[in-house]
Amino acid sequence: MSESQLRQDLVRYARSMYQRGYSSGGAGNISLKLPDGNVLATPTNSSFGDLDPDTLSKVTMTGELLAGEKASKEILMHLAIYRQRPQCGGIVHLHSPWLTALSCLPGLDNENALPPITPYQVMRVGKLPVVRYLPPGSPVIAEEVEKLAAEHNSKLLANHGPIISGKDIREAVFNAEELEETARLYFMLKPFGMNSQEEKRMPEIVVYAVEGRSAEQKKTLMVKITEAVVESFGVERDRVVVSIVETKASEKSRGGVLYCERGK
User: Fold this and answer.
1) Is residue 74 annotated as part of the catalytic site, yes or no?
2) How many CA atoms lie within 13 A of 203 on its CB side?
3) Among residues 13, 18, 22, 74, which one is catalytic?
4) What domains sit in the chain, N to C, each tagged with a CATH number?
C-alpha cells in the first residue's frame, strides 16, 4: 500500500474514533509503520476529528522528524512498542471513557486490569498490564511501556488511558474497540459479578513425537509453534500453551511396525 493511501487510512480511522467518542479535543495519538520503516503519527495538539493527511508527522524509528508537523511527545511510547514488537504495524493511544475510568480505579491487578470476560477480548488483546502513573509526556512512560511491549499488545497507563497495537492500523483500531467495549461491559457487570473465560480455553497445542530430540531442538520447536499461533490467532504469547509428549521407540508403531524396528 502506498504512503498516500496509508495517510488517508490513518485520518479515516482517527475520525471514526473521534465521532464515536473514543477521543476528545486533542487527546490521544495514533501511528502506523510505513513500508520504508519510518513511522507516521498524529502531530502534537492535533484532534482525531480534523487531521490533515499532508501534515501528519513522519519520523524515523529514533524519533527524528522527517516531514510534517512536530510529533507528540508521546510518540516515544509508540516507537518503544515498534522496537519490541517487529510484527506491529499500527498503534492507538486513547483517552476513551471506559478504559480511562478503569485506569483510575484503586486496587487494579497490575498484571491484568481486566478479567477475561469474552473470548474476543482474550483473542484480540489478552492480558492488560498496568503502567504506574507518570505525568503525560514523560519519557519514563516509554521506558515502562517498552518493558511490557514484547509480551503484550495492549497496556493501560494508570489515570491516563490505554495504548493498543496491532499488525496494522486496522487491527490496532479493532483491538481498541474490543477493549473499550470490554471495559464498558466490566462496569455494567461489576455490581452483579461475572463469569470469565478460563485459562483452559486458551490455545493449546500438543506435539506427539518419538523420544530422542535434544532439549534445544524441542525448545526451538515450541518457540516456532508459539510464534505461529500468535501470528495466526492474534493472541498474546503468554496465552499459548505448547506441550511435547514423547514416546519410546519401542512403544510406538506405524503400520504395525515398531519405530525401533523400522529401517532394520
Assistant:
1) yes
2) 22
3) 74
4) 3-189 (3.40.225.10), 202-261 (3.30.429.10)
Q: Active site includes 133?
A: no
How does pLDDT run across 73-90, given as a tens digit for each residue?
999 999 999 999 999 999
Helices (H), the chain: 3-19, 75-84, 97-103, 119-124, 139-149, 169-189, 215-233
| Helix (H) or strand (E) run with residue 234 in it | none
Q: What is the pLDDT of residue 264?
A: 56
Give me the catalytic one of 120, 143, 151, 181.
Answer: 120
State yes or no: pLDDT of 142 exceeds 60.
yes
Query: Cα separation of 177 and 164, whole Å?
Result: 10
pLDDT tens track for 151-208? 999 999 999 999 999 999 999 999 999 999 999 999 999 888 877 765 445 678 999 9
For 99-131, b where at least 16 C-beta lie within 10 A, e where not — what string? bbebbeeeebeeeebbbbbeeebbbbbbbbbbb
74-83, 137-146, 228-237, 246-255: least confidently modelled range: 228-237
Amino acid, single-letter form, for residue 96: S
